[in-house]
Design a protein that fits this description.
single chain, alpha+beta, 1 helix, 26% strand, flat
Length: 92
């Protein structure tokens, strides 16, 4: 089983920063998605891709992956840069 560990990204639709400190362990799909013969919707028998585990810190997520034998890759969060702008900059 392989998984990826990443920090929750900021929601682009809201300015709030709630839940940004959560780390998520998300499993990689084990099989390709195929169209359903009856309806044509894509799906697979793999239920692991529906599981998202949330942790308070990166160390907790790593410890869980190690304890359960999950090979996890960690995707680092890029640093947040605050872009300071003044209203007067629109008229320069």
């Amino acid at each position: 089983m392989t998984a990826r560990i990443f920090q929750r990204p900021k929601n682009a639709m809201q300015s709030g920063k709630a839940l940004l400190d959560q780390w998520i362990l998300e499993f990689a799909p084990n099989e390709a998605r195929r169209p359903d013969p009856l309806m044509g919707w894509p799906g697979s028998a793999d239920t692991q891709n529906q599981v998202n585990l949330k942790f308070a810190s990166l160390d907790e997520a790593k410890a869980y992956a190690d304890a359960h034998g999950i090979v996890a890759t960690i995707h680092a969060t890029p640093p947040r840069r605050l872009k300071l702008q003044a209203y007067a900059d629109n008229f320069r």
